[in-house]
Model the fold of this input.
Amino acid sequence: MNNLLLKSFIKDKHVGAIFPSSKLIVKKIIDKIDFQKAKIIVEYGPGKGVITKKLLDNMHDDASLFVFETNEQFINDLLQIKDRRLIIINTSAENARLVLKNRYETERVDYIVSTIPFTFLDRRMRRRIIYRTFTLLNEKGRFITYQYSWLIFHLINRKFKKANWKFVLLNIPPAIIFEGIK
Ligand SMILES: C[S@@+](CC[C@H](N)C(=O)[O-])C[C@H]1O[C@@H](n2cnc3c(N)ncnc32)[C@H](O)[C@@H]1O
Done:
């Protein structure tokens, strides 16, 4: 068992999981990204950085990865990743659009990958994050997330031009990958 995740899970319900994402789910998410075209990627809820590291492994030298994490213990873990393309931001995903615009003069991004546990957020917050995510993406931008329930699918479906889903039955527990395409 992952001790840091377990302790964080007990202290902070927004951590949402005791285990980091499985290798299988990380691969399925990474496979959805066209790294030839991706110049700016955003990640919500990087945790200890399992997906973050894979994103960096695949990204172009001149691409950037902005990660938004609320849990300060995880921020310390993320700070161990030494990569000039990685920008770590200790605030909630709901502020991503504002922070990127005001602090980094960045109005649009190519991909947003999220593992935040939407189930633990209230209805309004879920909607706010997904709608702001839509606005932050450039035309043809993609939002990729995985969840254990259908709770947010209708929001992705309502907002994005195309909403795809795929079961990952071999994951424990089985998960659903959602993808919103602008
Ligand atoms: C289920 S963990 C996923 C961790 C890691 N990305 C992985 O795949 O194993 C969810 C992460 O989202 C973070 N989180 C929860 N709500 C958030 C929010 N509103 N904004 C940014 N991060 C958030 C938690 O602190 C935690 O690190």
Notes: The pocket of S-adenosylmethionine is lined by residues 14-17, 20-21, 44-47, 50-51, 68-71, 74, 92-93, 115-117 (CB under 6 Å). The mean pLDDT is 93. The CA atoms of residues 70 and 92 lie 5 Å apart.
